[in-house]
Amino acid sequence: MKTLETYRWVASRWPAQHRRHRVPYYIHKTLASLRDDEERWERITKPPLDRRTQTHRWTDTAAKQAVDQKFADTTSVQQKVERTPALPRMERSRDLIELVGACSVFVATVGRVLPTLRGHAFTAEEKAVVARNLGRVRATADWLEAAVTSGDVSLDEGLARLRMLHPQLTLIWGDSAYAGTLVEWARRFLHLTMKIVTKRPGQTGFKVLARRWIVERSLSWLMNARRNVIDFERKPSHSEAHLTVASITLMTRRLTRKRPPAWTRKPASAPQAA
């Protein structure tokens, strides 16, 4: 009998035109405690942000907070995680186990597959593929060894990833910002030769140097296309397509121009005095 009375009371607090079909009944029941009708009807149309799902929706805890009721626990899942000191250690342990497992899987796979290739005559293409992937494996192993030894992967992460993806690279050019311990680290662990391009002695102001401003110069050429100046694209693939079109335009203009570049033409000779 009491349940039926509760249903009738909640229905009287929520006229049909003010009910929300996607909001559960228990939320209506909790918010029905608000005395002012206008406040109650407006409140249900503005669900709070759920930090766990990053969506606006009503929960039992949020509804009770709205009417200042006491409830068992308002701590979110993220707050519980942050208050548990053992979880960060568990995350690091999980990453370490995953890293060791990847090494074990590699060793086990090679030990299982390699004996079956006895007597196999590798073609030149197969040898090239194996050599290229072995370079990536060596670069990754050197990166792992350096990270475990020094405990720092922030400085060399990009360079090691470049070496791993492109093992054919042997020479890297850089400006003075990359001078220091990175040069020796790249030579020792990644087997890369880094050449630092420094300013000329006594240089003041801007001077054109060899192997400098290559990236900036390429970006400025691409920015000549007005569509690439400000990124309004919805997907990264759209921006990539516009950059590709700009590169094609730049290359076709260079290939089809009739006169040689200005730096290859001989300077005009000065007129001789009569």
- Extended strand count: 4
Shape: elongated
Instruction: Please report the number of helical segments.
Output: 11
Summed up, the domain count is 3
Provide the β-strand percentage band. under 5%
Order of helices and strands: HHHEEHHHHHEHEHH
* Gyration radius from CA atoms, angstroms: 33 Å
Task: Tag the structure with descriptive keywords.
two-stranded parallel ribbon, 274 residues, elongated, 11 helices, single chain, mainly alpha, two-stranded antiparallel ribbon
Task: Characterize this entry briefly.
By secondary structure, the chain is mainly alpha-helical. The chain contains eleven helices and four strands; from the N terminus they run H-H-H-E-E-H-H-H-H-H-E-H-E-H-H.
Question: Would you mind describing this structure in some detail?
Answer:
The protein folds into three domains: 2-77, no CATH class; 123-199, no CATH class; 213-259, no CATH class. The chain has eleven helices and four strands; from the N terminus they run αααββαααααβαβαα. It has helices at 2-13, 25-31, 37-43, 60-66, 77-82, 86-113, 124-150, 157-165, 181-189, 214-222, 236-256, and strands spanning 49-50, 55-56, 171-174, 193-196. It has a two-stranded antiparallel ribbon with strand order 1-2. It has a two-stranded parallel ribbon with strand order 3-4. Helix 2 (25-31) runs parallel beside helix 4 (60-66) and helix 7 (124-150) packs antiparallel against helix 8 (157-165). The model has no long low-confidence stretch (mean pLDDT 77).
